[in-house]
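ok so I'm stuck.
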Amino acid sequence: EKTFNLAVAQSPGDLNGPADRLSWLADKLCELEGKEVDLLLLPELFLTGYNAGEKLMDWAEPGDGPMAMSISDLARQHKTALHYGFPEKLYDEISGEAIYNAAQCFGPDGQQLGIHRKLVLPPGFEGDHFTPGRGCRLFELNGFKIATLICYDAEFPESFRHVASLGAQLVLVPTALGVQWDVVARKVIPCRAFENGVYVAYANHAGSEGNVTYLGESCIIAPNGEEVKRAGAGEEILFALLETA
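replied:
not stuck anymore, here's the structure
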């Protein structure tokens, strides 16, 4: 039987840009000293904020950019894998320079374990500014096979079925879910876990960011669809010990 110490961070939505967010993360990791945490999951576009408008484009960087290297250093210093959302700037042979709504994970040694680019972009700002990702890949940590789906990706049963068919035992879902979509956090995500027999970790922002009010309610769901942990509306970090054969 394999075990995995998971933490899910529900970070404040009103943190002011990458420098403020990196400082918040560094402080939280110091507070976690002494706790066993194999991986800390952070929300969608954690590095910049989700509702940051055109600043998102200015703050976009490659997966090995300077802010990414700061997070890699924090992962290595604290010997904890860090999984976070960010706007990724990448040169694409088909479309030239592209910006993706991405999430990546640095392992406890500071090395990149995996990256995922959001597959399904909702209409509006995301659809107008980001390029859709293509495909899903798993990575492994402490014997667990792990997949990433970002926010809207997770609302489609086909996406979950795909990563489960690849062998995922844990699906990480960074999100930026507004208060009007409470059914997703409370009903859809537990259903996806139950349908596929996988753990699901769902990391949302807390509070408000500009004119967006986030639901909060980050959660960790067991393969039988039962809640392991669920946050309220405010800043919070959830902890859970996962087990698999």
